[in-house]
Specification:
This protein has helices at about 20-30, 30-40, 90-105; strands spanning about 1-10, 45-50, 60-65, 75, 80-85, 115-120, 125-130. By secondary structure, the protein is α+β, with helices and mostly antiparallel strands. The chain has one domain: Regulatory factor, effector binding domain (Multidrug-efflux Transporter 1 Regulator Bmrr, Chain A, Alpha-Beta Barrel), CATH 3.20.80. Strands 4-1-3-2-6-7-5 form a 7-stranded antiparallel sheet. The longest helix is centred in the last third of the chain and has 14 residues, at about 90-105.
């Protein structure tokens, strides 16, 4: 799957006091494009990239849509571990990231830190895909 960037932010999970607002704005600024893509059967992704270190460091988050043409990210180049997100949980994405961070801290996974992504499918399913070694 290939993704093209709609918009990008830079943030930090632990030190950026504006992180939540940045993500809200990212999604709000692109709501029409994301909705149109989903309605036409395309996947939307929030891609995490340009990591300064690991999940505790600064990184970029880009809202993207699937494409067959020009792509900024190509998932075919990596091995992926998929974490399903509980859509009944209002904080499901955040709780899934907490599980990923715990698995990494417990050395259950070895992340590549090239790029990772949240995958939002037209049918409403959400998962987080982690690039692994």
């Amino acid at each position: 799957m290939k993704f093209e960037i709609l918009e990008t932010i830079r943030t930090n999970n632990f030190t950026d006091l504006e992180m939540t607002n940045k993500f809200i704005n990212l999604w709000q600024n692109n709501a029409d494009l994301a909705e149109a893509a989903l309605k036409s059967g395309l996947t939307i992704a929030c891609v995490y990239h340009r990591y300064s270190s690991d999940y505790q460091g600064d990184y970029c988050a880009s809202l993207c849509r699937a494409t067959d043409d020009h792509s900024d990210f190509d998932t075919a180049n990596f091995n992926w571990l998929s974490y399903p997100v509980d859509s009944s949980d209002e904080q499901g994405v955040y709780h899934t990231w907490q599980k990923i961070w715990a698995d990494e801290a417990d050395k259950k996974i070895s992340r590549l830190y090239h790029f990772d992504y949240e995958k939002y499918e037209p049918n409403g399913q959400v998962s987080i895909r982690i690039a692994i070694l």
